[in-house]
Design a protein that fits this description.
By secondary structure, the protein is mainly alpha-helical. The protein has one domain (about 15-115). Helix content is about 70%, strand content about 5%. It contains 3 helices and 2 strands; from the N terminus they run αββαα. It has helices at about 15-55, 75-90, 95-115; strands at about 55-60, 65. Strands 1-2 form a two-stranded antiparallel ribbon. The longest helix has about 40 residues, at about 15-55. The radius of gyration is 37 Å and the shape is rod-shaped. Keywords: Membrane, Transmembrane, Transmembrane helix.
Amino acid sequence: MAWGKQKVQAPPSTIRQLLPLFITLIVLGVMAWVGYQIYLSVTKIQTQARKQMGNNVVFTKDGMQVRVKSMENESYLDRTQSWVVKAWELGSSSGANEKDDAAKRKRRTNHIVKQG
């Protein structure tokens, strides 16, 4: 009778058992190589940036910090405030003075253009 006989399967070969291990090692090796290439690129970019920008750029864990060279807070505020004051004065001129101011500015720019 047929139910008493069963086919006995041979155990898988050693190569078939090790194939997933080899595939895993190859994938991990490729990922490690790509990570190493990224590391080399980032290091090269950092050294190039330091070389071109000098000591004003600092790379930290949080990112990159840029220091302003020889610019104090007070002088920065003075410069920006002077622009705001000039804009305020130009914007708040009265109707009669506006025509005179516009004519003066036009003469000034024409004079500058003729000299240049």
